Amino acid sequence: MLPATLPAQSRAASTPPPLSAPLSANDQTLIGQIDSYLNSQSALTANFLQVADDGSTRTGKAWMERPGRMRFEYDSPDPQLLVSGGAALVYHDPALNQTTTIPLGSTPLGILLAQHVALDSGDSQITKIDREPGEYDITLVRRGKAALGSLTLVFGANPLELRQWVVTDAQGHQTRVSLYDITPSGPLPESLFQYSLSAPTSHRN
Fold first, then answer.
1. Could you give the domains of the chain?
2. What distance, in Å, lies between the first and last C-alpha atoms of the chain?
3. Scanning 8, 53, 75, 137, which has its CA 20 to 30 A from the CA of 151?
4. How far apart are CA 106 and CA 64, in angstroms?
5. Which residues pair with 49 in a beta bridge?
6. How far is Cα 63 from Cα 181, in angstroms, rounded to an integer?
7. How many helices and strands (H and E) does the chain possess?
8. pLDDT band, very low/low/confident/very high, at 186 (cuts 50, 70, 90)
C-alpha cells in the first residue's frame, strides 16, 4: 500500500466537479480563517493513522515544516519513509530496496507545505465545502489536474485544527490519514529533512 502523500497514477477521473458558483461570503470567511490558521502553523510533529480503501491500516510519525519540508516514518513491518527538504520528495521502500524522487508540488501535501497557503488559489481549486457537526470538510483539486484526484482536508471547528486528510485517487479509491498527538513546534532539526541513500535512519525518540 502506497503512502497517501504520493500522487495518483491512474488515468480516469472520479473527482468532484468544481463548484458551480463562486464561494459565498460565508464560505470566503471560513476559507480565510482556515488559510490564516494553516499559515500560522510553521512546524508540527504528530502521530498518524492511515486507513486505505480496503480497510487496511498503518501507523507512523510525521514531522512537517513550511515551506516544503516533511518527514513521514511508517512503523514496522513495512517501514517506508518519505522525506522532503524542499522542492523534491524522496520515497524509500525498504521491502523493494527502491528509492523514488518526485516533485513535492505533484503530491497532495504540496498544498499544505507551500510558502504561503491559499486553498482557493492559482494552484488549487475548492470543489466542495461540507459543514458537519464540529468539523469542516474542504475538498480541493489541482487546477488543470483534476484527473489526478482530489484532497479533502478535515478540520475540527472548535478549536480550528487540522485533524485529517483524505486522498481520492483517479479511480475513486480513498486513503484517509488521521493526525493525533499534534504538537506545534519551533524550527525542526535540518537532519529530519535530509535523506541518505546509503543509510536512511529513524528519528524516533
1. 25-183 (2.50.20.10)
2. 26
3. 75
4. 17
5. 59, 178
6. 12
7. 1, 11
8. confident
